[in-house]
Amino acid sequence: MEIFGVPLPAMLSQLLLGLVNGSFYAMLSLGLAVIFGLLNVINFSHGALYMMGAFLAWMGMAYFGLNYWVMLVLAPLVVGAFGIVIEKTMLRWLYKLDHLYGLLLTFGITLLLEGVFRSFYGVSGQRFEVPEALAGATDLGFMMLPNYRAWVVLASLAVCLGTWFVIEKTKLGAYLRAGTENPKLVEAFGINVPLMVTLTYGFGVALAGFAGVLAAPVIQVQPLMGQNLIIVVFAVVVIGGMGSIIGSILTGLGLGVIEGLTKVFYPEFSSTVVFLVMVIVLLIRPAGLFGKEK
């Protein structure tokens, strides 16, 4: 069976592979949306922190003999702790200033991190083996789906939906939203708003570190691995609506699928289709698909 001249198995294969890429987009854009939506900071260092998570996972394996599952927990915690240091020492002084200052600061952090890792490891890339428990592939009839890629999709969906639930449906999430809109009122109820803001930033960048660990066995670990990806992720956040949690998740997954289909019908256009979608969405709805019009 063919659809527009393309065999159905080939199309379904690209849809699944697009969903894998979309899972990374969703995870990274979620972290950006959490940080911008709750802290009003455009975190351009997100791609570098994603790279840092991947490198920490590789270093834990290469230098200390730690396995993938340990580093899947440990690396995001280290990246989150690093983010907390950034927030407490630098970012918190910029909250009342224009967004541009936070963007410039985080861009500088990006260049610093990439430069440090490049000086130690070069740009050739480090190989990270797929964990033994997730090796091999499953026959779906129309394609062989690598087990690890299926795990990436499931893990990303679980973390994304869990984050959305906590922020949108729990008392903690209500405190977070209220603390960014009216911190003095929330502090009157005995809640430590500065600490809450710091932990929120740490959690947001920990999501980038988690995505980096997930990506490590899929692509080679190298200092510039987050450079191109972060541009696409920013486009995802803009399309979904700046600060929209559910918008980032759904848009990330959807654009991954669209990108996968584009590779079937017009491969040369697959690297730019995301930006075409962004232009169209902004012309029709400037606040993004799920953003709130001011």
Automatic annotation (TrEMBL):
It comes from the Bacteria. It is found in: Cell membrane. InterPro entries: ABC_transp_permease, BCAA_transport_permease. The chain crosses the membrane at residues 22-42, 54-79, 99-117, 148-167, 199-219, 231-258, 264-284. It is a multi-pass membrane protein. Pfam families: BPD_transp_2. The keyword Transmembrane applies. Keywords: Amino-acid transport, Cell membrane, Membrane, Transmembrane, Transmembrane helix, Transport. The keyword Hydrolase does not apply. Belongs to the binding-protein-dependent transport system permease family. LivHM subfamily. This is Branched-chain amino acid ABC transporter permease. It comes from Duganella qianjiadongensis.
